[in-house]
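note to self: the first set is below, dont mix up w the second
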Amino acid sequence: MTGPYATAITVVALFCAAWVLISAAANRPRGVALLAAGLVLEVLLVGYAIGGIVQMAGSDHNLARGEFVMYLLGCLAIPPAAFVWAWGDKSRGGTAVIALAFLITPVMVLRVQQVWAGSVG
């Protein structure tokens, strides 16, 4: 569950967060490009979730399986929820919600990796 794929998700999410924060600061309206960036991130997360569940099912690795699956599903839920919320709020605050979702995603990916590794500390 660690490696280049998780790193790619993190880089894409942080790049998108920077882009959205700059757009919000410049008071630019949201558009199709932002929606496309969110879709790219969501596709990466779907692959991550499917890969994680398949890897977990085929492994006798000792981990909290329920917690692992819930974190994977949480990763999938955060960006769409943020976009639904933000599209209802046309202010800069709505755009900031999208940026926050992009910033939360790498934290969730890191947490998935920690659960996969087993107990920490």
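second set (the one i keep forgetting abt)
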Amino acid sequence: MTDAWHKPYAAYLFDLDGTLIDTAPDLSAALNYCMQVAGFSPVSEQLTRHWIGHGARVLLEQAFIHHSKKSTINDQQIDDLLPVFIDYYAQHLALLSKPYDTVVDTLIELRQRGAKLAVVTNKITQLSLPLLEQIGMSSLFDLIVCGDTTDHPKPAPDSILYCLRELAVNQQDCLFVGDSNTDVLAARAAGICVVCVRDGYNHGEDVTTLQVSGVIDTFDELL
């Protein structure tokens, strides 16, 4: 890693959960509501933080595997619980979730400098847009690309390439800011520079070992 990435960009793309907003407390509550419905004991928020990033279905699958101690799960149970999870979470999106320190001020400064800002998340539209609205951040972004916006979410590059087209920016003029290898793989496949926040939802991986151009501890390091 070098500091070569640290320069002004025409556009900045951001992962949502674990990068912009600490959503784990509300996701954990929704997951544990589903565990109660399924007759399981709650799982810790710490575990939930390791599982976030691949969508609600994977979150449920990981919790079932944790409880059953098996590598396979009952697909029908997951199918039945998925709408329960989404409904509960949709009604409790921003009770405890909040932006990380310096995130909002940094986004405002980048906008004032003329940069285009976008969210590129695997969270579905039904949850992403209301969350950003309730947190009070939706007006900060020129574009919000969700997990169901394109056919293939991250780690495929589709959502990032879609974003570049919509914002009319080139790969070399864009920086992706994420928190996990899912983001890194997507950004690299799309041909854009990527940095990771150190303590996001990284599935237990040390982000300094990933193919990133840089690692930041606080958001204002982007300025």
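remember for set 2: The mean pLDDT is 94.
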